[in-house]
Amino acid sequence: MALESISVIKLKNLLLVTVPSDPDDETISALQEQVLEAMAQHEAKGLVLDISRVQTLDSFFARTVAETVQMVALMGGRTVLAGMRANVAVTATQLGLTVGNALSALDVDRALDLLNAAHSGVRHV
Amino acid sequence: MNEPQQGEFQITSENDIVMARKVVRDAATTLGFGITDVTRIVTAASELTRNIYHYAKCGVMYWRVLNQDTRVGLELTFKDSGPGIPDVERAMEPGFTTGKGLGMGLPGSKRLMNEMTIESTVGKGTTVVVRKWLKQ
């Protein structure tokens, strides 16, 4: 089976990545590489990972996301996870997963607001 | 009832982790599990299939519908002829791993399911059985 394609979209100084619904390990690893390359290429200040389509968040996925968040942070960017489904959140928590220091938002719109607010110096509690 | 009541799936490649998830998702959905339970079962299957792929390279997953008195459930069996687990008790401790994982797979899968048994012999292989019962 072919890799599910991932597109990294640049929106002003942010990157938006939509994670496919049921990615295999190879796709998730490829996603990490593409994101980091795009961060460097576009000098992006933030990353929105749209996971609203994701149906299964297992330990490999969570570890790769946590690593990516950490790598993006080292490159000066913030990551927001957008749109996690309720059933995925319940399952990931019971499994014992965390996704590092990622911020999270209900959807992509709110994720963009969150990153823009962070950059314009607005403090939020 | 013409729906299949059992099946098996060979695990030989990394891509089979995704395929096993699809098989389990279909079986659990058909049986009538709600979306959160389906996600729990599929996620446990993903962890246990990945364990087989990483530690034993290949193995097989069997699934079957359980009909016990008044309750109905789904049983998944993951069987391999890999290196085995030397200390099953330790392998069940969150955070313990001999590989590159997070050490969440076994204890996490147990939390997601209702029942879990592990039989393992070093040098012979490992069989993990998990069950989830349909809420009445």
Task: Report on the architecture of this protein.
The complex is a heterodimer of chains A (125) and B (136). Chain A is an alpha/beta fold. Chain A has one domain: Transcription Regulator spoIIAA (2-Layer Sandwich). Helices cover 45% and strands 18% of the residues of chain A. Chain A has four helices and five strands. Chain A has helices spanning 25-42, 59-74, 86-95, 108-119, and strands at 8-11, 14-18, 46-50, 78-82, 103-105. Chain A has a five-stranded mixed sheet, with helices on both faces. In chain A, strand 1 and strand 2 (14-18) form a beta hairpin. In chain A, helix 1 (25-42) runs parallel beside helix 2. The radius of gyration of chain A is 14 Å and the shape is globular. Chain A starts with 7 loop residues before the first strand and ends in a 6-residue tail after the last helix. The model of chain A has no long low-confidence stretch (mean pLDDT 90). Chain B has one domain (6-133): 2-Layer Sandwich (Heat Shock Protein 90), CATH 3.30.565.10. Chain B has a five-stranded antiparallel sheet with strand order 1-2-3-5-4, covered by helices on one side. In chain B, a hairpin with a 2-residue loop joins strand 2 (59-68) and strand 3 (71-80).
